[in-house]
Amino acid sequence: MTTVKYSLDEFVHNMEALLATQPEEQSIFDSGASWLEKLINNPDAIPAQYRVPVGTGKRPNHGSYVLYQGESGLLVTAVVWGPGDHASPHDHCTWGMIGVMDNALTETRFRRVDDRSKEDFAQLEQDRSAVVKPGEVSLLIPEVDEIHQMDNFTDRPTVEIHCYGKDLRGLDRHRYNLETGQISPFVTEKYDNC
Ligand SMILES: [Fe+2]
Question: Which of 30, 40, 110, 134 has the smallest number of Cβ neighbours within 10 A?
Fold first, then answer.
Protein backbone atom coordinates (compact mmCIF):
# COMPACT_ATOMS: atom_id res chain seq x y z
CA MET A 1 0.00 0.00 0.00
CA THR A 2 1.33 3.44 -0.88
CA THR A 3 1.15 6.13 1.78
CA VAL A 4 0.36 9.54 0.35
CA LYS A 5 2.41 12.18 2.13
CA TYR A 6 1.15 15.64 2.94
CA SER A 7 2.56 18.08 0.39
CA LEU A 8 3.52 21.75 0.32
CA ASP A 9 0.62 22.34 -2.11
CA GLU A 10 -1.83 20.82 0.35
CA PHE A 11 -0.41 22.88 3.20
CA VAL A 12 -0.70 26.09 1.19
CA HIS A 13 -4.22 25.20 0.04
CA ASN A 14 -5.35 24.50 3.61
CA MET A 15 -3.72 27.65 4.99
CA GLU A 16 -5.16 29.92 2.28
CA ALA A 17 -8.64 28.44 2.73
CA LEU A 18 -8.37 29.04 6.47
CA LEU A 19 -7.06 32.61 6.08
CA ALA A 20 -9.90 33.42 3.65
CA THR A 21 -12.31 32.98 6.57
CA GLN A 22 -10.45 35.76 8.44
CA PRO A 23 -9.93 33.60 11.51
CA GLU A 24 -8.79 34.63 14.97
CA GLU A 25 -5.08 34.17 15.55
CA GLN A 26 -5.71 31.21 17.85
CA SER A 27 -7.57 29.37 15.08
CA ILE A 28 -4.65 29.93 12.72
CA PHE A 29 -2.33 28.34 15.28
CA ASP A 30 -4.71 25.50 16.17
CA SER A 31 -5.16 24.30 12.60
CA GLY A 32 -1.99 25.68 11.04
CA ALA A 33 0.37 24.06 13.53
CA SER A 34 -1.19 20.63 13.00
CA TRP A 35 -0.83 21.02 9.21
CA LEU A 36 2.75 22.24 9.56
CA GLU A 37 3.52 19.19 11.73
CA LYS A 38 2.25 16.96 8.93
CA LEU A 39 4.31 18.86 6.37
CA ILE A 40 7.61 18.67 8.23
CA ASN A 41 7.08 14.95 8.71
CA ASN A 42 7.28 14.54 4.93
CA PRO A 43 10.99 14.54 4.06
CA ASP A 44 10.17 15.04 0.39
CA ALA A 45 8.05 18.15 0.97
CA ILE A 46 10.71 20.58 -0.22
CA PRO A 47 13.25 20.29 -3.04
CA ALA A 48 16.80 19.19 -2.20
CA GLN A 49 18.31 22.54 -3.27
CA TYR A 50 16.38 24.25 -0.47
CA ARG A 51 17.79 21.96 2.22
CA VAL A 52 21.37 23.23 2.11
CA PRO A 53 23.11 26.50 3.09
CA VAL A 54 23.43 28.89 0.15
CA GLY A 55 27.24 28.58 0.19
CA THR A 56 28.02 32.05 -1.20
CA GLY A 57 27.60 35.75 -0.35
CA LYS A 58 27.45 37.47 3.03
CA ARG A 59 25.99 34.51 4.88
CA PRO A 60 27.21 31.33 3.16
CA ASN A 61 26.45 29.11 6.15
CA HIS A 62 22.73 30.00 6.01
CA GLY A 63 19.98 29.57 3.47
CA SER A 64 16.54 31.17 3.23
CA TYR A 65 14.27 30.27 0.34
CA VAL A 66 10.74 31.34 -0.51
CA LEU A 67 8.51 28.33 -1.15
CA TYR A 68 5.22 30.22 -1.47
CA GLN A 69 3.90 33.76 -1.24
CA GLY A 70 0.22 34.62 -1.52
CA GLU A 71 -1.86 37.75 -1.91
CA SER A 72 -3.32 37.06 1.52
CA GLY A 73 0.15 37.80 2.91
CA LEU A 74 0.90 34.13 3.59
CA LEU A 75 4.63 33.43 3.26
CA VAL A 76 6.15 29.96 3.45
CA THR A 77 9.93 29.62 3.46
CA ALA A 78 12.62 27.01 3.96
CA VAL A 79 15.39 28.14 6.30
CA VAL A 80 18.67 26.27 6.65
CA TRP A 81 21.09 26.83 9.52
CA GLY A 82 24.59 25.50 8.96
CA PRO A 83 26.75 24.28 11.88
CA GLY A 84 27.48 27.22 14.21
CA ASP A 85 24.94 29.48 12.51
CA HIS A 86 23.33 32.07 14.78
CA ALA A 87 20.64 34.73 14.73
CA SER A 88 20.66 37.35 17.49
CA PRO A 89 17.40 38.25 19.29
CA HIS A 90 14.80 39.69 16.90
CA ASP A 91 11.06 39.99 16.42
CA HIS A 92 8.75 39.30 13.48
CA CYS A 93 5.80 41.72 13.76
CA THR A 94 3.40 39.12 12.37
CA TRP A 95 2.16 35.72 13.50
CA GLY A 96 4.42 32.83 12.59
CA MET A 97 4.95 29.10 12.89
CA ILE A 98 8.33 27.37 12.67
CA GLY A 99 8.73 23.66 12.15
CA VAL A 100 11.98 21.73 12.27
CA MET A 101 12.25 19.26 9.43
CA ASP A 102 15.77 17.89 9.83
CA ASN A 103 18.36 17.93 12.66
CA ALA A 104 17.78 20.37 15.56
CA LEU A 105 17.98 24.04 16.48
CA THR A 106 18.37 25.73 19.85
CA GLU A 107 15.75 28.45 20.20
CA THR A 108 15.95 30.91 23.08
CA ARG A 109 12.93 33.07 23.83
CA PHE A 110 12.92 36.43 25.58
CA ARG A 111 10.24 38.57 27.18
CA ARG A 112 10.27 42.34 27.54
CA VAL A 113 10.29 43.55 31.10
CA ASP A 114 10.58 47.33 30.50
CA ASP A 115 7.57 49.66 30.29
CA ARG A 116 8.06 50.30 26.53
CA SER A 117 8.27 54.05 27.17
CA LYS A 118 11.56 54.49 25.28
CA GLU A 119 11.36 53.99 21.54
CA ASP A 120 14.77 52.43 21.00
CA PHE A 121 15.24 50.63 24.31
CA ALA A 122 14.05 47.26 25.56
CA GLN A 123 15.03 45.30 28.62
CA LEU A 124 14.80 41.59 27.89
CA GLU A 125 14.82 38.58 30.16
CA GLN A 126 15.35 35.05 28.97
CA ASP A 127 12.08 33.19 29.16
CA ARG A 128 13.17 29.72 28.03
CA SER A 129 15.54 27.83 25.81
CA ALA A 130 14.81 24.60 24.00
CA VAL A 131 16.36 22.29 21.46
CA VAL A 132 13.67 22.06 18.80
CA LYS A 133 13.67 18.71 17.05
CA PRO A 134 12.25 17.26 13.83
CA GLY A 135 8.46 17.23 13.83
CA GLU A 136 8.19 20.02 16.42
CA VAL A 137 6.57 23.40 15.77
CA SER A 138 7.07 26.62 17.70
CA LEU A 139 4.75 29.62 17.47
CA LEU A 140 5.49 33.32 17.12
CA ILE A 141 2.81 35.43 18.78
CA PRO A 142 3.20 39.15 17.98
CA GLU A 143 3.78 41.40 21.01
CA VAL A 144 3.29 38.44 23.37
CA ASP A 145 5.93 35.80 22.63
CA GLU A 146 7.99 36.36 19.53
CA ILE A 147 11.48 37.59 20.40
CA HIS A 148 13.93 34.79 19.88
CA GLN A 149 17.54 33.85 19.23
CA MET A 150 18.49 30.85 17.10
CA ASP A 151 21.64 28.72 17.27
CA ASN A 152 22.73 25.57 15.53
CA PHE A 153 25.12 24.01 18.02
CA THR A 154 25.31 20.76 16.05
CA ASP A 155 27.76 19.72 13.35
CA ARG A 156 25.36 19.50 10.43
CA PRO A 157 22.72 21.71 8.77
CA THR A 158 19.27 22.12 10.29
CA VAL A 159 16.30 22.50 7.94
CA GLU A 160 13.12 24.34 8.94
CA ILE A 161 9.90 25.44 7.31
CA HIS A 162 8.66 28.87 8.37
CA CYS A 163 5.15 30.18 7.81
CA TYR A 164 4.18 33.81 8.39
CA GLY A 165 1.08 35.96 8.09
CA LYS A 166 2.94 38.66 6.19
CA ASP A 167 5.74 38.77 3.66
CA LEU A 168 8.77 39.66 5.77
CA ARG A 169 10.39 41.49 2.86
CA GLY A 170 9.91 45.18 3.54
CA LEU A 171 8.33 44.59 6.94
CA ASP A 172 9.76 46.81 9.71
CA ARG A 173 11.22 44.56 12.40
CA HIS A 174 13.73 44.87 15.23
CA ARG A 175 16.89 43.37 16.64
CA TYR A 176 17.56 43.55 20.35
CA ASN A 177 20.94 43.99 22.04
CA LEU A 178 20.83 42.03 25.28
CA GLU A 179 23.70 43.98 26.87
CA THR A 180 22.80 47.58 26.04
CA GLY A 181 19.04 47.27 25.54
CA GLN A 182 19.37 48.97 22.16
CA ILE A 183 16.59 48.23 19.65
CA SER A 184 17.78 48.34 16.04
CA PRO A 185 15.30 48.39 13.17
CA PHE A 186 15.90 46.06 10.23
CA VAL A 187 14.15 44.88 7.10
CA THR A 188 14.53 41.61 5.23
CA GLU A 189 15.29 42.62 1.66
CA LYS A 190 15.45 39.36 -0.23
CA TYR A 191 15.64 35.62 0.00
CA ASP A 192 18.36 33.48 -1.50
CA ASN A 193 16.18 32.23 -4.33
CA CYS A 194 14.34 35.47 -5.14
FE1 LIG B 1 12.99 34.60 13.75
Answer: 30
The range of the structural domain enclosing residue 86 comes to 8-186
Q: What is the whole-number distance in angstroms between the Cα of residue 125 and the centre of ligand 1?
A: 17
Q: How far does the centroid of ligand 1 lie from the alpha carbon of residue 25, in Å?
A: 18
Q: Among 140, 150, 178, 172, which residue's Cα sits nearest to residue 62?
A: 150
Instruction: State the distance from the centre of ligand 1 to the C-alpha of 3, rounded, in angstroms.
Output: 33
The reported pLDDT for the residue numbered 4 is 80
What's the gap in Å between 146 CA and the centre of ligand 1?
8
CATH number, residue 161: 2.60.120.10
pTM here is 0.96
Work out how many domains the chain is built from and give that number: 1
Give the distance (Å) from ligand 1 centre to CA of residue 43: 22
